[in-house]
Amino acid sequence: MPFTPTAFNRLAAAIWERDADITLVAADLVYNDVIADPGNFTGAASGITNLKGHKSIMEFVKARGRTVYFDVHTWTHGPGSSADYTKVLLSFHDALHKVCPGTETKVVIFEFNALAHNLERALGNAYATIDMEKYSDKRPIVCSANCLQVDGHNDNG
Fold first, then answer.
1. Residue 149: CA count within 13 A, CB half-sphere
2. Pick from 143, 83, 155, 68: which is nearest to 116 by CA?
């Protein structure tokens, strides 16, 4: 059964009953295109075409005085690869706040992904980290993925 906003909200309530200080993260994975209309867009690797589910989650957490972060991954093949993702992620952040104004929702990046494990990727990650730092008010967490991939661990491709 796919994970739904209703399931997220039910789990969130149970988690906050035990520890109200936890900030929950919903994984959203990859967006490739700038989002102009939160109700109808393309380019999400997951097949998501609107932010109705996101809105449901954000309204639920906002009503409880909490926040939720959405984890989105980016591609960092080389030094110039993150520039387009900066525009995409800013549009995603803005779209989230358009569908649920007044929320403290942020976008986090738990993985810079690439199809290479070389100096180009390292430079891409460095550039992305510097680029994302400019928007730390909207992206409080930015991480590189799977540091052991270069040694053959956690490599899914």
1. 17
2. 155
Beta-ladder partners of 78: none
Tokens representing 114 are: 């690439």
Task: State the Cα–Cα distance between residues 138 and 93, nearest whole angstrom.
Answer: 7
Burial (0-12, 13-18, 19+ Cβ within 10 Å), 17:
exposed
pTM of the model: 0.86
Residue 64 · residue 113 · CB < 8 Å: no
* Polymer length of the chain: 157
Do the Cβ atoms of 95 and 107 come closer than 8 Å? Answer: no
List per-residue pLDDT tens for the chain, 157 residues long.
456 899 999 999 999 999 999 999 998 778 889 999 999 998 888 888 999 999 999 999 999 999 999 999 888 887 777 677 788 889 999 999 999 999 999 999 888 888 777 888 888 888 888 888 888 888 888 888 765 555 666 655 5
Calpha distance 150→94 (Å, rounded): 35
CA distance 71 to 108: 5
